[in-house]
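Appendix B, record 7
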Amino acid sequence: MDPRRRLNPDELRHQALEAARALLIEAGPQAVTLKAVGARIGRTHANLLHHFGSAAGLQKALAAYLARTVCGTIRQAVTDSRAGLGSPREVVDLTFDAFDREGAGALAGWMLLTGNEDALDPIVETIHELVDEISSTQEASHVPGIAAVHEETLHLVLLAMGDAMMGGALAKSLGLPRDTARRRAEAILDASVASVSV
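Structure tokens (predicted):
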């Protein structure tokens, strides 16, 4: 990218968030600084400060960006699953990957530790919107109830978050296969699908 090329604010934000996401995945949340993101896209710290306000503002924008991206992917997986093109395991894998490989779990943990809890709001709100959207598109005769859908989402997200934070070490110490939490989440979703189709 030519650092001298003038970008409109939306282009700059998008490039900055993509760079922040890459840094998050490569080096962890502590690497997501205005200076590091600026260096990656050929912009100054002051330029990014103008667009995000602070490092905390960048983190909050990154959380919202990850939430939109991840929930969009999960939404498509759920749609495919309903059309017979996917499975509950695919929804589980996408959710777990979002918190693990895509860095959402590390980012959430970092923000909680640094006192930036409100930066998690975009993730929570986007997941809530996704769940409500999924619930409202189901036929009434096939809905186990909005409370059940919310409980399943809570289960899935907490399992994915916990697995991202310490799943590998805990599974190893207990002598369990690495994908045990994913298999448990899949069993929960399979049981839910079975109860709805009865």
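Remarks on this record: The mean pLDDT is 80. Residues 58-197 form one domain.
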